[in-house]
Specification:
The chain is α/β, with parallel strands linked by helices. The chain has one domain: P-loop containing nucleotide triphosphate hydrolases (Rossmann fold). The protein contains 8 helices and 10 strands. The longest helix is centred in the last third of the chain and has 16 residues.
Length: 242
């Protein structure tokens, strides 16, 4: 279980995240939703220790998460990645195996198998020698999905993985999410999508600096909650007919 208790993040006297607490169970896909500037990415970065928090405790299996980061896979927003860096698809994914291989050691046989399996799973093995900057947005996202798989982690954090991707990539991502859930992994996904794909999530966290609501789709995505989070202009998206 991942436990977040009373997390605060403060930038120069301004509260970006205020008193956020929640627990994530194994085998769950949890969506983090909220307006731009709500602190979604900030919250995840603070959980992972990438930015300092002003208060709060984060535990995984009752131990501080900062001492267990080898169990974490994190895929940031595509806009935060330098796509001009001269590196191949295979090398990007092999980087996820550093803790398994050792920093200055050659990749071992198992790591090569893991990398190949991960790239095959997302349909990118045939492009393994391609420079990462030459790929489409959807292909780039699949490479970083493969990289997260190659880490063999227990906790997975994805920041806006569906931005700028094609339908094929979206389908592959959700298929992989389902497989990770079935394997007992815990997934936290920042997303703006309140529409057709929202049924794929087990739970939602609705954030606007503080936690407005958490729970199932029907418990969280209500007119009252969305109005509180997004303001008067929000339009409640209706569930697609089943």
């Amino acid at each position: 279980m991942l436990e977040v208790h009373q997390l605060d993040v403060n930038y120069r006297g301004v509260n970006a995240v205020e008193n956020v607490s929640f627990c994530l169970e194994p085998g769950q896909l949890v969506g983090v939703i909220g307006p731009n500037g709500a602190g979604k990415s900030t919250m995840v970065k603070a959980i992972l220790g990438l930015i300092p928090s002003s208060n709060g405790v984060v535990r995984f299996h009752s131990r501080s998460l900062k001492h267990q980061l080898a169990n974490v896979a994190y895929v940031p927003q595509r806009s935060q990645i330098d796509w001009d860096y001269p590196v191949t698809v295979a090398t990007v994914v092999m980087m996820a195996r550093t803790r398994h291989n050792g920093l200055f050691r050659l990749s071992n046989r198992r790591s090569k198998i893991v990398v190949r399996t991960a790239l095959q799973r997302v349909g990118m093995w045939e492009l393994r020698h391609r420079q990462i900057g030459e790929l489409s947005g959807g292909q780039q996202q699949r490479v970083f999905l493969a990289r997260s798989l190659a880490q063999e982690a227990e906790l997975f954090f994805f920041d806006e993985p569906f931005v700028g991707v094609d339908k094929k990539t979206e389908a592959i991502i959700f298929e992989v999410f389902a497989e990770l859930k079935a394997a007992g992994k815990t997934l936290l996904v920042i997303s703006h999508d309140l529409g057709a794909t929202s049924h794929a999530y087990d739970r939602f966290l609705l954030l606007n600096k503080h936690l407005v609501a958490e729970g199932s789709r029907d418990e969280v995505i209500t007119a009252a909650n969305l109005k509180e989070a997004y303001g008067e202009s929000v339009i409640l998206l209706q569930r697609n007919p089943e």
